[in-house]
Amino acid sequence: MTTPTIHPSRRFDEVRTERLLMRRWRDDDRAAFAALNADPVVMEHFPTVQDRATSDASVDRFEAQLAEHGWGFWALERRDTGELIGFTGLNPLSDDMPPAPGVEVGWRLAYAHWGHGFAPEAAVAALRVAFEGLGLDEVVSFTSTANVRSRRVMTKLGLHHDAARDFDHPRTPGWSGQRHVLYAIGAQEWRDRMGIVGA
Description:
Layout: E1 14-16, E2 20-23, H1 30-37, H2 52-69, E3 73-78, E4 84-92, E5 103-109, H3 118-133, E6 138-144, H4 148-156, E7 160-161, E8 167-168, E9 179-186, H5 187-194
Antiparallel strand pairs: 1-2, 2-3, 3-4, 4-5, 6-9, 7-9, 8-9
């Protein structure tokens, strides 16, 4: 896995927003996360739903990244209820992915928590970590061409569609959603968007 050169000022084991807590994963998150990954509505733009073993393997992978680097795909918890509602965060792209090397911002939320603005709220916090904490030059995001909902979130975040970098997902041959669109935002674009002067 290719991890870009970063310049972290500190670890980011916990990130808070107005309504959300982005944190390390716990064993008691596994059942709720597995239920989310088994929901065909949530997984509409993926090749298939996930079984418990596959979901648990994702938790293990996410937590290993957080433990080693202090950033990654955080467990996403509602601060008002304490519910695990999914994940949001940053992911170093593996070498087989066409946009690599690089870091993506991504999210997946349980259906009951769609439509409340949680995904963009948490993703803005993740981008702040990427650009202000880790010193990344660019962050990308990608999804199946038909995933209009996620594409709308990407646009809200200030990412722009870079059609020249669209690609066929290498791990899903024959899948109808194999064609992926890529969105990106650079550090200067982020600073301009946030009104950060002199960075």
